[in-house]
Design goal:
The complex is a heterodimer. By secondary structure, chain A is mostly helical. Helices cover 39% and strands 9% of the residues of chain A. A two-stranded antiparallel sheet of chain A has the order 2-3. Chain B has three domains: 301 residues, no CATH class; 119 residues, no CATH class; 59 residues, Arc Repressor Mutant, subunit A. The chains are: A mainly alpha, B alpha+beta. Strand 1 of chain A pairs parallel with strand 2 of chain B, so a sheet runs across the interface.
Chain lengths: 95, 512
């Protein structure tokens, strides 16, 4: 079971400021997801190799070849704030 | 040098006045994490170039900028270079490995996670042999894995006072190989030695350019102390920002003293990350909450697992070059070089190759001391003028091996003196010309003509009656003075042996 403390912890890690109401809603939703996992746990997986991927393919690799980049201006165009050729972000708060 | 584990307790600026009530001797336990940028043309998961020094944010694309909906694809060359390194360290290359997301929030990383490897790294369980005061030590390597580099942050002002940070994402996605040593290092000096040896292996393998200034090779250290003889590990502190061999040693020396003083004072060491401030010479705590290390790793769903084909591994193994330690031992055995010379000459593959290329060039006389003479020239002259000992510095050397060999031939056959040769060397470096060209044009050939030189000796003797008088009275030092005068009169170009013989001849004819 996920309690409020767990939700607050994860919210802090993901830099989300949740209201009381949202905290409660997340707690409920996360618990219902976990409940679904319990259902999945009922499936018999005896003798099945664990996998981290739904598709049974391996070794998809590319050759070490340089391809065109996105133009600098195009990349910076979406920046909420910039300083010349650099993205500008709020100062890092480490409390 | 300090004996491993022995700690000096000189008071530190931030703990001045502290007294040690019960001195304890501690064992020092250090482990290093080395991050090396791999020498690929393109990034780890996209085709953007990896060249250093391009205009900010000019080498990025939606993949390395972490845009939604993009798919990373593994760079085969990066995997190959990492396997190459793993084999050189005797690691077990895992038959299967996969990538994982490491989550944390920092503006240098646009996705808010870094693609790394966690539970199934590329390789594990290797070692690196280092020499500490001539005795070999085996330092274990725990794991070696692949990940992507993050962008570069520039702070407006200092980190503490900055109102904003500026981000360049060119470095974001550059292939990075992380190698974690076991906590086998027992002193700051050993740590620096390990890093040096580690760097030279990478240079020999051609997997990383080893440029610590540009950040191609970076190092973090974990350090803890425990009472001598104890087998339980103390609380470890991680130190970041160690960007040179000297800084690794200095930072660890500081940290060991800091921890020893704290423990002596009965304090507990806090598990934390500290930043080395090279300018001020101390480590300071990076204020961050405990949950900073809650990375919530999980398998990267955008990448399929890797199954490393053993035939590929064998192929890479077959292509491994001679490694620094083996080459060092060979240089001592084959050329009779002192251990120190062999060590310097094998810091990079390029330097050792250069040395051997000079030796392979024809010589005027095949003296047994030639390897040592060449070594002296490479170590004291070439390394003095070159900006470094890495591939780039050696390959762009204005003095190629056959030019240096040509200079040595001119000394050997008596065309120029050893002293003049040093000047010629500098001119060769400045002009990229070979030695005979410079010597011919500037008339630096030593005067080896007995008739011409005899005349100069006669006139020097005639101009120095006092020296002759002194010599007659038995002062042999007078001959030295005359010798100096002759060399001076010829601008250093006279063949010293010939001058000596002529003086000896002429002085012996003077009645004592």
């Amino acid at each position: 079971m996920i309690d409020r403390n767990d939700v607050e912890h994860v919210a802090r890690l993901t830099r989300l400021a949740l209201t009381e109401e949202e905290l409660e809603r997340m707690r409920e939703q996360l618990n219902s997801i976990l409940a679904h996992l319990d259902t999945l746990r009922g499936v018999d997986t005896e003798g099945v190799e664990p996998t981290s991927h739904a598709v049974d393919i391996v070794n998809v690799m590319r050759e070490d070849v340089v391809e065109p980049c996105l133009p600098q201006e195009a990349m910076l165009a979406n920046a909420p704030d910039r300083s010349g050729e650099l993205f500008r972000v709020p100062r890092i708060i480490e409390e | 040098m300090t004996e491993p584990g022995r700690i000096s307790r000189r008071p530190l600026p931030d703990r001045a006045g502290l007294t040690d009530p019960a001195p304890t001797t501690y064992d020092v336990v250090i482990g290093l994490e080395v991050h090396a940028q791999l020498l690929t043309r393109s990034k780890m998961f996209c085709g953007c170039p990896t060249t250093f020094g391009a205009a900010p944010n000019s080498q990025t694309c939606p993949v390395c900028q972490g845009m939604p909906g993009v798919l990373p694809v593994v760079n085969r060359k990066a995997v190959e270079l990492a396997i190459r390194t793993a084999l050189a360290f005797g690691c077990r290359v895992n038959p299967a490995c996969r990538f994982a997301r490491k989550h944390y929030y920092y503006p240098d990383m646009p996705k808010n996670y870094q693609i790394s490897q966690y539970e199934e790294p590329l390789a594990e369980d290797g070692h690196l042999e280092i020499d500490i005061d001539g005795a070999p030590r085996t330092i274990g390597i725990q794991r070696l894995h692949l990940e992507e580099d993050v962008g570069k942050l520039v702070h407006e002002g200092s980190l503490e006072t900055a109102q904003a940070s500026l981000v360049d994402f060119n470095r974001s996605g550059v292939p990075l190989m992380e190698t974690v040593s076991k906590p086998d290092l027992r002193s700051p000096e050993e740590a620096a030695t390990y890093l040096k040896a580690f760097r030279s292996v990478l240079l020999f393998l051609g997997v990383c350019d080893g440029n610590m200034e540009e950040g191609s090779l970076r190092c973090d250290a974990n350090v803890s102390l425990r009472p001598r003889g104890s087998t339980t590990l103390g609380t470890k502190v991680e130190i970041k920002n160690l960007n040179s061999f000297r800084n690794v040693q200095r930072a660890l020396e500081f940290e060991v003293r800091r921890q020893a003083q704290a423990l002596d004072a009965g304090e507990r060491i806090r598990q934390e990350t500290r930043l080395w401030d090279a300018d001020r010479g101390y480590t300071r705590s990076m204020r961050s909450k405990e949950y900073a290390h809650d990375y919530r790793y999980f398998p990267e769903p955008d990448l399929v697992p890797l199954r490393i084909d053993p035939r590929w591994v064998d192929e890479i193994r077959a292509g491994l070059p001679e490694l620094p330690r083996a080459r060092r031992q060979r240089f001592v055995a084959q050329y009779g070089l002192p251990a120190y010379d062999a060590d310097v000459l094998t810091q990079s593959r390029a330097l050792g190759d250069y040395y051997e290329a000079v030796l392979r060039e024809p010589a005027a006389s095949a003296g047994a001391d030639r390897p040592k003479i060449v070594s002296n020239w490479v170590m004291s002259e070439l390394l003095r003028v070159l900006p470094g000992d890495d591939e780039r510095a050696i390959e762009t050397s204005p003095i190629p091996p056959h030019h240096l060999a040509g200079l040595l031939r001119l000394i050997d056959d008596g065309t120029i003196s050893g002293r003049i040769a040093k000047d010629v060397f500098q001119k060769m470096f400045d002009s990229r010309e070979d030695a005979p060209t410079i010597v011919g044009r500037e008339g630096l050939t030593q005067v080896a003509d007995a008739t011409a030189l005899g005349g100069i000796v006669d006139s020097v003797m005639a101009a120095n009656p006092k020296a002759i008088e002194d010599f007659r009275r038995g002062k042999t030092a007078a001959k030295k003075s005359l010798f100096g005068q002759v060399m001076k009169a010829t601008g250093g170009k006279a063949n010293p042996m010939l001058v000596d013989r002529l003086l000896e001849d002429k002085l012996s004819k003077i009645q004592r």
